[in-house]
Amino acid sequence: NSYRIASIPGDGIGPEVVSATIQVIQKLAKTLGTFDIDFEHIPWGTEYYKQTGRYVSEDYLDSIRQYDAILFGAVGSPDVPDHISLWGLLLALRGPLQLYANVRPVRTFPGTKSPLNTATDGIDWMLVRENSEGEYAGQGGRSHVGQQWEAATEVALFTRVGIERIMRFAFETAQSRPRKLLTVVTKSNSMRNGMVLWDEVAASVAQDFADVKWDKMLVDAMTARMVAKPQSIDTVVGTNLHMDILSDLAAALAGSIGVAPSSNLDPTRKSPSIFEPVHGSAFDIIGKAVANPVATFWSAAEMLVWIGEKDAAAQLMGCVERVCAAGILTPDLGGSSDTQGVVDAVCLEVEKL
Amino acid sequence: NSYRIASIPGDGIGPEVVSATIQVIQKLAKTLGTFDIDFEHIPWGTEYYKQTGRYVSEDYLDSIRQYDAILFGAVGSPDVPDHISLWGLLLALRGPLQLYANVRPVRTFPGTKSPLNTATDGIDWMLVRENSEGEYAGQGGRSHVGQQWEAATEVALFTRVGIERIMRFAFETAQSRPRKLLTVVTKSNSMRNGMVLWDEVAASVAQDFADVKWDKMLVDAMTARMVAKPQSIDTVVGTNLHMDILSDLAAALAGSIGVAPSSNLDPTRKSPSIFEPVHGSAFDIIGKAVANPVATFWSAAEMLVWIGEKDAAAQLMGCVERVCAAGILTPDLGGSSDTQGVVDAVCLEVEKL
Ligand SMILES: CC(C)[C@H](C(=O)O)[C@@H](O)C(=O)O
Ligand SMILES: CC(C)[C@H](C(=O)O)[C@@H](O)C(=O)O
């Protein structure tokens, strides 16, 4: 079992957490001896943009398709407006590669603690985000720029195909979990078109999943439920923007955004999927060697599951959890270790496998 | 000082909390003797719709303009799709009356407690929501309905005028508070038109408020900040949808959505402003006589401030806080009182003034 992985470290602390993760994965591959994995460095990001005027190469979609998966760090730099950098790189991949399912497991991790007194037993949610359309369809414009009567639009575009495929994916995800609960998040009281279509598609897809218990929730009320009744939640599905917001909230409620992983999946497997930490480029701590690599470790474990190395992924997560439980943590989690300290500790655990 | 107030109890528990509030306000007016206030009942809502086919009367905008303010209960019924009822009544008022500033004070109230261990000193935020455009502009549509290739849009519309007026209002609000901090929430990394315009207008309006310390925050990251660093937040401004979401979250983090008030203001005072609890029609507890009236009391106090009875408002809030602090609370706050029990207790406090 041999895999070719594109590594796109990108900007900010991206290179730090990606290189930390590659060390750990290579140690794992060597120790287990059951697979090998080749990481090919791809230099896309803000430096590349400064040199070439583009965030990615001209044939980027073709060139990226040859890989089994993509390990992504972060994109965004204080030197470039965020909407340029993000649409230049990350959003230029998610939509065009039809990575329509963004999966974000959120749970209270060893070494972290939920700040909620309503969640003393911790949190264990699976968030499914539509990742190819909706509020991120990229449509809209500005007219009369600079005039007092300037008007601008942001157009959220929803298709029946787009909703149906993510809804089916979400019901299957819920079905695979012990509690088999799904909450469909919308805002169909104030948004009368695409959001009502979401409701209709949810009701129709639900008929194929009699064993999944599902409910609907407005996105505003959902935040209050996450705070007040975290145990009532299992799997959640929603639009690109709604789940962008709810997944950051979820990670914070579970204890830390520094451990939260994210998979951008093409469930049809025509395109390579992207695995990335939820945190961003975090320019405030760049170069200080304290970036928390756990979210990227966890993202890489999700990648291993996706490419077919489920056992290796479970072993890796076991090692990471033991290290975190032992208190070997970066400062954002209240620890005193640096990035390399966490890497070394995980590698030591891997050697014991 | 004589005021004419339109009372629109609406649906669900709306009539219960509005009638509770009218009792208390009338007692206050009688006790203080400094103003009087006439509440005129307006029957708009789902029953009205069932009888007339409309949620409001045909000349509703003209007829409502004769009042000094509007006390609103709730709208929404299990019998009617939410997008019909809300656009039929509440959203038919907010936009057309140009009630562009939705103001939502959020603080840990006597009798409530933040569920966050990061907020042991409680929460005290002022949320300002753009209330006339954006994601609630009402634009968009569906094509190829029912076909596999169906597509639907939700169009968020932003105008320079709309952004400028709410931004100015928010900076003034921040300026009037002791800490003078303002956070401008956007999502200008993924939304490149109206959201970038928000950023531009914020930077330009800020120049007129040198004494306000302001920062920008992406809506997703803002949720994490609200959870992890609640003390870092004072006044917040954002779009119609973003603040819809953040204000529910804020109320839950502060301790309860059952006490959260909301003012829909026309700062130019051409239209009467609407004062309403944040909670909705809550059909699950209708008729059980346990609806929490505190959010509507607080909304009415905001109304008194707005029409010019600042002292009366402060007296009222003092009474309500003493009652809550004494543990006379409805079941949603862990108490054992019913709605009328809370009303009677507040009226007793008012008598002592
Ligand atoms: C970086 C940004 C474009 C991105 C998003 O909004 O999707 C991020 O917040 C995320 O959640 O992956
Ligand atoms: C009832 C609904 C339309 C409304 C909104 O979304 O604005 C409510 O959630 C609110 O916050 O006032």
What does this structure look like?
The structure is a homodimer. Chain A has helices at about 15-30, 45-50, 60-65, 80-90, 90-95, 160-175, 195-205, 220-230, 240-255, 295-305, 310-325, 340-350, and strands at about 1-10, 35-40, 70-75, 100-105, 125-130, 135-145, 150-160, 180-185, 215-220, 235-240, 260-265, 275. Chain A is an alpha/beta fold. Chain A folds into 2 domains: about 1-100 and about 260-353, Isopropylmalate Dehydrogenase (3-Layer(aba) Sandwich); about 115-255, 3-Layer(aba) Sandwich (Isopropylmalate Dehydrogenase), CATH 3.40.718. In chain A, helix 11 packs across helix 12. The two termini of chain A are about 20 Å apart. The mean pLDDT of chain A is about 95. Strand 7 of chain A pairs antiparallel with strand 7 of chain B. The complex binds 3-isopropylmalic acid (2 copies). One 3-isopropylmalic acid sits at the interface of chains B and A. Chains A, B: Belongs to the isocitrate and isopropylmalate dehydrogenases family. Chains A, B: This is Isopropylmalate dehydrogenase-like domain-containing protein. Chains A, B: GO terms for molecular function: NAD binding; oxidoreductase activity, acting on the CH-OH group of donors, NAD or NADP as acceptor.
